[in-house]
Amino acid sequence: MDKVLRYLKTNQQDILEDLAHVVGWESPSHDKDRVDHCGKGLQALFQKHLGLKAEVIPQTETGNHLRFSYGSGDSQVLILTHFDTVWDVGRLSYQVKGNQAYGPGILDMKGGIVQALWGIKACRELELPLDKKIVFLCTSDEEIGSGTSRSLIEEEASKSEAVLIPEPSVAHTGALKTSRKGNGIFKMRIKGKASHSGNHHAEGISAVEEMAHQILFLHSLTDYTLGTTINAGIAHGGNRINVVAEQAEIDIDVRISKLEEAERISKRIVEAKPYLNGVSIEVEGEINRPPMVRTAQTEQLFSLAADCGKELGIDLTEASVGGASDGNFTAALGIPTLDGLGAVGDGPHAEYEHILIDQLPIRAALFAKLLAKL
């Protein structure tokens, strides 16, 4: 057996115990106190396993971001992670059922953080040569758009030769992610004219009727051949059954595979025209993350990871996915970015979110070997 894999398999229970602690430090994105508590726990783990002290980047609204630096060299590799989750405190609990471990954020992406940490630890303990500085960036607001961390992410990525992202692998296959769709969030506010639905129906202008027209328009912008989808995910309007609706709102999700689609789709949504006379429309929002496009550099990085996989007896595949991550930012800068290096499991953002325990040491070994080859 490969010596890196043997070391990590020997420590599988310790890896799982670390993960149980991190999952237990619940960290919903909007709860700064909870997120910072989790961050302090992570600092203790990095100190324990690698002797590293964090550079804390303080925030006022979100949790503080953490930057760890390991080793030295003329160039650096960025490991990009986030430790906030989508789960309210108490919604899920940590539990183990056979080879599966469940809990809030265990797959997205606390499992990946712990695996990457143990990957570096394996390099340290086994004295694998690392000739580049490794920057391990842990951010606190990825699940809510990375508003406070984006500039930090882009700054570190611009200094790096490669970016490794231990977000979850593709469910059921363990595939790495070499391209992702970009995404945008828009809100459309519609204002009509209220009137009594019985006595003065003709005097009203229904914002809900206008909303129906706008939803059909928005969905018509979907073009599967271009990889562009638009979804009116939340729509509501009016306030009384016997009143012609004066107001309505639509929350709109946009996914794009091509960068040039960002401007075109944004323009179409922001400049949407009313169908009904007397209606006014306001739209706010933007393309939050550009698409992560597979490039020749990405292909080379994946091939390097695939070679590492072969040394561990696994046949790695790659995939393009519809979800976005902070890797979209780094790839857009032209930095080779490989995503999906995290835990193997299923159910991110779902109540059955879980990881496969026996894959923890394998994926940690993959991470260690990839760092050594870089």
Descriptive account of the structure:
The chain has helices at residues 3-10, 12-24, 32-50, 106-125, 150-158, 207-220, 260-270, 296-311, 327-332, 360-373, and strands at 55-57, 65-70, 76-82, 95-97, 100-102, 133-139, 160-164, 176-180, 182-191, 229-237, 247-256, 280-289, 318-321, 337-338, 345-346, 354-356. The protein is of the alpha/beta class and 374 residues long. The protein has a six-stranded mixed beta sheet, sandwiched between helices. A hairpin with a 7-residue loop joins β15 and β16 (354-356).
Short description:
It comes from Kroppenstedtia sanguinis. With 374 residues, this protein is of the alpha/beta class. It contains 10 helices and 16 strands.
Secondary-structure map:
Blueprint: H1 3-10, H2 12-24, H3 32-50, E1 55-57, E2 65-70, E3 76-82, E4 95-97, E5 100-102, H4 106-125, E6 133-139, H5 150-158, E7 160-164, E8 176-180, E9 182-191, H6 207-220, E10 229-237, E11 247-256, H7 260-270, E12 280-289, H8 296-311, E13 318-321, H9 327-332, E14 337-338, E15 345-346, E16 354-356, H10 360-373
Parallel strand pairs: 3-6, 3-7, 7-14, 8-13
Antiparallel strand pairs: 1-2, 2-6, 4-5, 5-16, 9-11, 9-12, 10-11, 15-16
Helix pairs in contact: 1-10, 2-4, 4-10, 8-10
Protein name: M20 family metallopeptidase
Pfam families: M20_dimer, Peptidase_M20
InterPro entries: Bact_exopeptidase_dim_dom (IPR036264), Pept_M20_glutamate_carboxypep (IPR017150), Peptidase_M20 (IPR002933), Peptidase_M20_dimer (IPR011650), Peptidase_M20A (IPR050072)
